[in-house]
Design a protein that fits this description.
By secondary structure, the chain is α/β, with parallel strands linked by helices. It folds into 2 domains: 15-155, Rossmann fold, CATH 3.40.50.1980; 164-267, 3-Layer(aba) Sandwich (Rossmann fold). Helix content is 38%, strand content 16%. It has 11 helices and 12 strands. The strands form 4 sheets. It has a 4-stranded parallel β-sheet with strand order 4-3-5-6, sandwiched between helices. A hairpin with a 5-residue loop joins β1 and β2. The longest helix is centred in the N-terminal third of the chain and has 19 residues, at 3-21. It is globular and about 55 Å long. The termini are far apart.
């Protein structure tokens, strides 16, 4: 390696460290300072687990949930589910940082963990939020350049591909749908869609007939959190049905957002 390249790389590393030392706030507005990168991280958010590995910080992940399936063949200690983590096992891992999500995880668990480790709370609701989250994780873990690369990949996939109306159910018995303030809705709207439930908040319960009366051009059927089947798709008539398909493409935020946008582009390509 020549001297110029060495100096350039050293300068980038110093810049990454300088950025990482700036106080960082989580979704609750709490300030954290990371004078060094965390070395023993527990992730209670499957999508963040994948993102940490994609950032190149997988060796620093000390514990994950039972639902962390990406990257494949993970060999890390598992500490329970997102809703029922085993706090004593998390404590035994001696983490220097624990990631949770405001919607996926329960407040009482986060409070219990805070007795022995810092807890960083996340909750991206839009594709823009995901880009910010990736940048934040890059700063925390001293992977600023890698985070920039991932954000660039996200931006390239986020293109207007079609104009259409849509609906996305997340449950059946009763039918429940993604409202306009959800990440799923924003993901689809970011490529040109318009949610027929745009003015509804969170996950309203309406019958299939009520939603079809709004004449969505497309109904998406992700296979999580409810495992929709081909039989469920056959119940939906008079409109285009996409799915069932891997729900993580719609419900996981982080680097999986890149694949979700790519999936949408392919649906209308």
């Amino acid at each position: 390696m020549n001297e110029r390249v060495e100096k350039t790389q050293a300068g980038r590393l110093r810049a990454s460290r300088r950025d990482a030392c700036v106080p960082i706030r989580d979704i609750l507005g709490r300030s954290f300072e990371f004078l060094t990168a965390p070395k023993r991280v527990v992730s209670l958010v499957p999508s963040l687990t994948e993102t940490l590995f994609d950032l190149g910080t997988g060796d620093d992940v000390a514990g994950i949930t039972d639902f962390c399936i990406f990257p494949e063949n993970l060999n890390k200690p598992r500490v329970g589910g997102t809703k029922n983590p085993r706090i004593d096992e998390i404590r035994a891992l001696a983490p220097d940082l624990v990631y949770v999500n405001l919607e996926e995880n329960l407040e009482r668990h986060a409070q219990a963990i805070e007795a022995f480790a810092p807890v960083f709370v996340t909750e991206p609701k839009t594709v823009d939020d995901v880009a910010t989250l990736i940048a934040t994780l890059g700063s925390i873990h001293y992977r600023v350049e890698r985070a920039d690369d991932l954000r660039e990949a996200l931006a390239k996939e986020r293109v207007h591909v079609a104009s259409f109306t849509f609906a996305v159910p997340i449950w059946k018995k009763p039918w429940m749908w993604c409202g306009g303030d959800t990440y799923v809705s924003n993901l689809v709207e970011s490529i040109g869609g318009r949610n027929v439930m745009h003015d509804e908040m969170r996950y309203p319960s309406l019958s299939l007939e009520q939603v079809l009366s709004l004449h969505p051009d497309v109904v998406f059927l992700p296979d999580e959190p409810y495992a929709f089947t081909a039989g469920d798709a056959a119940e939906i008539t008079g409109t285009r049905v996409i799915g069932p398909f891997p729900g993580h493409l719609f419900t996981w935020h982080g680097t999986r957002t890149i694949l979700g946008l790519r999936f949408l582009r392919d649906c209308f390509g």
